[in-house]
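Ticket #4471: structure export looks truncated?
Reporter: QA, pipeline team
Priority: medium

Steps to reproduce: submit the single chain below to the structure queue and open the exported record.
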Amino acid sequence: KPSPRSANGRTAFERTEPAAVTTRRNFIKALASLPPVLAYRPAWAQNKTGPDPSRLALVIGNSEYPSSPLGNPVNDAKAVTPLLTQAGFTVNSLLNATRQDMTAAIERFGAAAKRSDVRQIIFYYAGHGAQMEWRNYLLPVDAIVEKQEHMKQRCVDLGLLLGQPSAARDKAHIVILAACRNNPLVSGNKP
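Actual output as written to the record:
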C-alpha cells in the first residue's frame, strides 16, 4: 500500500532540511525561551535598568576559517547575544576572533567572573572545535593546524576557559559549546 502524500508530494516521514539545521533552530528557539527564566533578579536589583553587573556572558562565533568556513556560527552568536542582553547579562561578543582575541577575552572574562558581585556566568562558543590527548580545543579563525603540536600552540585550550571562572566560587556557570568537532589533522581539512 503506498504511503499517503501531502500536497507538496512528500510523505510525513521525509525530511525537508538536514537534521543539523533543525537541531540548531530548535536550540535557538530554546535559548529564546530562556530570557524569562534568566531574567529573575533579586529584590535589590529589581529597580535597575540596563545590564545587571552580577550577570556576565562571553559569546564567541567563528565562521570565517580560511580553508573550511562555517555558515552558521556568526549568525548563531548574533542571535544569542541579544537574548542574553534582554535577560540582563553584560555581554561581550566576539565574531571571527583570532587566537589572541579569544585568549584576551577569556582572561578578561575570568577576571571579571571572580568579582564578588558576579553571580551568573555564561560562555557561548560556536565554531570549529577539536580534541587531542583528552584535551578540548576551540579553534580561532587564524589557526592553521598541520600537526599535533600546532593544536596546543595555535588553538585555545578549553581548560583555559573552564579554569578561569571555576576559581570563582558561589556562582552559576553555564558553558554552551556549539562546536563542529572534526579532525583538523586530516588532509584537506585544515580549519
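Status: closed, not a bug. The export was complete when the record was re-opened. Leaving a note from the reviewer for reference: The CA atoms of residues 40 and 87 lie 8 Å apart.
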